[in-house]
Amino acid sequence: MAQATSQRITVHDLAQQLAEQRVKVVDVREPMEYAGGHIAGSLNVPLSRITQANLPQGPLVLVCQSGNRSTKALTQLLQQGYPHPLVDLEGGVSAWQQAGLPVRKLQNAPLPLMRQVQIAAGSLVLLGLVLSHALAPAWILLSWFVGAGLVFAGVSGFWGMARLLAVMPWNRIGA
């Protein structure tokens, strides 16, 4: 088997290579993120399944939102002995969009998860404030609880509300 090579590619170089059909793109984000906007023609294989997936042959460009998960995927595939060239997109889909390059969104894609968290958290804080004035002062504890949860999420990296929202029916993406 040939030894795989690894490098990084800029968004403009990727756009040119895609136009010339020289590479294939594998997006390692979760299906909900992929549905919200991806590079046209890319294959969605979440990071959690990258080593078990039947990937296409030939040079692959791995992408995610910012470049962190695609770097992890690249490392995992290299450790597994993937025999074809692997390239990581610098800056991910965010850099692609910032460069003004187009993304494809699936019809009826849900709102991005972090926007859902902001809406839910803000709504719960406001609800706690309104109920504490209208019904009973103890409802202010709802606002305190949500605020403490947001601080905990920021410090620990565990986003309980995001995990809960991610499994809601409106966030399920059909195969």
Structure in words:
The structure is a single chain. The protein is α/β, with parallel strands linked by helices. The chain folds into 2 domains: 6-98, Oxidized Rhodanese, domain 1 (3-Layer(aba) Sandwich), CATH 3.40.250.10; 113-171. The chain has 7 helices and 5 strands. It has helices spanning 11-19, 31-36, 68-80, 92-98, 113-134, 140-156, 160-166; strands at residues 6-9, 24-27, 43-44, 60-63, 86-89. A 5-stranded parallel sheet has the order 1-5-4-2-3. Helix 3 links the parallel strand 4 (60-63) and strand 5 (86-89). Helix 5 (113-134) crosses helix 7. The protein is elongated and about 65 Å long. The two termini are 33 Å apart.
CATH superfamily of the largest domain: Rhodanese-like domain
Spatial shape: elongated
Amount of beta strand: 5-15%
- Level-1 CATH class name of the largest domain: Alpha Beta
Would you count the extended β strands for me?
5
As residue ranges, the low-confidence spans are none
Please report the distance between the alpha carbons of the first and last residues: 33 Å
What is the CA-based Rg, rounded? 20 Å
In the CATH scheme, what's the topology name of the largest domain?
A: Oxidized Rhodanese, domain 1
> Mean pLDDT, as a whole number?
89
Order of helices and strands: EHEHEEHEHHHH
Named CATH architecture of the largest domain? 3-Layer(aba) Sandwich
Q: Please, how many helices?
A: 7
Number of separate domains: 2
